[in-house]
Amino acid sequence: MRILVTNDDGIAAPGLWAIAAEASRTHEVFVVAPDREQSAIGTAVTLRQPLRVRQTEPQKPGIVAYSVEGSPSDSVILSLEKLVKERVDLVISGINQGANLGDDVLISGTVGAALQGYLRNLPSIAISIATIENRHLDIAARLAALLATKIDNRVLPRDIFLNVNLPDLPLSEIKGIRITQLAHKTHIDSVNEGHDGRREYYWLVRRRLSQEVDPRTDIWAIENGYISINALHASLFGKPPLERPEKLCAELMKELTQWQMAI
Q1: What CATH number is given to the structural domain containing 90?
Q2: pLDDT tens track of the chain, all 263 residues?
Q3: Contact call for residues 135 and 144 (beta carbons, < 8 A)
Q4: Domain region containing 31
Q5: What is the SS3 assignment for 67?
C-alpha cells in the first residue's frame, strides 16, 4: 500500500514523522507537508500566487519528503497531481497536536488535508491527540497504521473518510474505542479587545458553550477516556455508517494492547 502522510503542523512536526516511521514498516510512505505550522486554516487552497516546493531531508531514512510553501490542502493536491508519480492508495493527515472534535472539523487544517484525498476518491484519515505536548505519539501512530491495514485488507471500505482523536493518556488508561458522532454547536468564537500602546487590536478566542455533552459524540468519548473515530464520508453530523462498529473497535483495541505488550 502506498501512503501519503501530511499534516497542518509543518514538515518538522514530531507527529508527522511518528506516523511516517510506523507506517513505513509495512507500507511505502511519502511525506508532503507545509513548510510551517498551518493550524485552523481549514480547507484553504492557494489560487492567486505560485506554490514553491522543496525536497527535504527525511527524519526517517528511505522516505521521500517535500515541504510546500502553502496550506495542508495545497500539499495534498500537489502530491496527488505532481509530486508522487505512482498511484497513492491512502492519505493520512496528522498526528495533530490538539484534538479536532465537533464543529472544529470545519476549520481544521488536519481534516482539510484529509478531505482533499477523499475528494479524489481515496480513503483518508485525519488523526489527532488531545494535547499540545508530544506525548503518546506512538499509540496514535500505531492506530493509524492499524487502520491503514484494515483498509488495505478491505475490513474497512475504501470509500471512507475517518476523523480519529485520542485522549492524552497512556494506552493502559484508555478505556476503549468508540465510533462516535461529531458534537454540534459546542463552541462559539468571541472577541477580546486590547491596546498595544499605539492602537487597538482584537483577539479571537474560542469559548466552550455550557451544555450537556451527548454520550454518542466525540467530545464525550475524549472527556471520558475513549478513543473517538468519526466516519465523515456520509454526513458530517449524521450517524456514522460503519458496519459492526463494536467488533471493529474491539479488534483495534486488542491489537493495540498486544502491540504494547510486545514492546
Answers
A1: 3.40.1210.10
A2: 999 999 999 999 999 999 999 999 999 999 999 999 998 899 999 999 999 999 999 999 999 999 999 999 999 999 999 999 999 999 999 999 999 999 889 899 999 999 999 999 999 999 999 998 888 999 999 999 999 999 999 988 888 999 999 999 999 999 999 999 999 876 677 788 999 889 999 988 877 666 678 899 999 999 999 999 998 865 555 555 666 788 889 999 999 999 988 87
A3: no
A4: 2-182+213-262
A5: strand
Decide: pTM greater than 0.85. yes
Cell of 237: 453530523
8 Å CB contact between 96 and 16: no
Q: Is residue 241 part of a domain?
A: yes
Residue 225 resides in a domain: yes
Answer whether residue 205 is part of any domain: no
CA distance 36 to 28: 24
SS (H, E, C) 8-76: CCCCCCHHHHHHHHHHCCCCEEEEEEECCCCCCCCCCCCCCCCCCEEEECCCCCCCEEEEECCCHHHHH
- 188: in domain: no
